[in-house]
Amino acid sequence: MSNERILVVDDERDIRELLEYNLKREGYRVTTVASGEDALAAARRGGYDLILLDLMLPGMDGLAVCRALKKDASTEGVAVVMLTAKGEESDVVAGLELGADDYVTKPFSPRVLVARVRAVLRRRSGEETGEVGTLNVGDLAIDLARHEVSARGHPVELTATEFRILAFLARRPGWVFTRQQIVDAAQDDDSGGERFVTERSIDVHMVSLRRKLGECASYLETVRGVGYRLRAEQR
């Protein structure tokens, strides 16, 4: 059973109680609050591993809370999963660009939400321990140490930028990322490498990746108005 602490922020009592019940069943320690102001106060007291943050809050809304969390040195490292309503596409993009880790759309399945929370916490733990190895998504295999990719057993020759983009998406299959998030992940800090990646060039890299992945090209999906993802479940 897990022992991580989760802060649930939602102004609807029924949702707070539903989330608290399902998260506690999984062994998480849960605190709930109903406003953005209370969320910030609780987060700054410390000890939370993840915050489930509703965007549509009265007073200080979820985006303002997320922005404040990421600007505060004491809370910037806490994982944030946004709870959004359908049609809040622009808010999802804004939240991801502010540093949120993931989002779940209402109405949601408690099982799916718990799985997403678990995935965020597991990824955070892996990043902290410097986890390396091979990422396997369907018929794609991405060797992080050797910078090698194979699709259905066949080697795929990628540029350094293309490899960074694919590895970034493969670390969190099924999750949608904005072009700016992909730009940040694809930048090369070495003076001799491919250094200039822009939001517009991301689309060009995606076209090239799909061409090179051949029969696995459909793994890369465009999400209108948001960005791209590597499909978690392959058809």
Gyration radius over CA? 19 Å
SSE sequence, one letter per element: EHEHEHEHEHEEEEHEHHEE
CATH homologous superfamily heading of the largest domain:
Response regulator
CATH architecture of the largest domain: 3-Layer(aba) Sandwich
Summarize this structure as a short list of keywords or feature phrases.
about 20% strand, 2 domains, about 240 residues, 8 helices, 5-stranded parallel β-sheet, single chain, Arc Repressor Mutant, subunit A, 4-stranded antiparallel β-sheet, alpha/beta, 12 strands, Rossmann fold
List the helices and strands and how they pair.
Layout: E1 5-9, H1 13-25, E2 29-33, H2 36-45, E3 50-54, H3 62-71, E4 79-85, H4 89-98, E5 102-106, H5 110-128, E6 134-137, E7 140-143, E8 148-151, E9 154-156, H6 160-171, E10 177-178, H7 179-186, H8 199-213, E11 220-223, E12 227-230
Parallel strand pairs: 1-2, 1-3, 3-4, 4-5
Antiparallel strand pairs: 6-7, 7-8, 8-9, 10-12, 11-12
Helix pairs in contact: 2-3, 3-4, 6-7, 6-8, 7-8
Write up this protein:
By secondary structure, the chain is α/β, with parallel strands linked by helices. The chain folds into two domains: 5-128, 3-Layer(aba) Sandwich (Rossmann fold); 134-230, Winged helix-like DNA-binding domain superfamily/Winged helix DNA-binding domain (Arc Repressor Mutant, subunit A, Orthogonal Bundle). Helices cover 41% and strands 22% of the residues. The chain is built from eight helices and twelve strands. The chain has a five-stranded parallel beta sheet with strand order 2-1-3-4-5, sandwiched between helices.
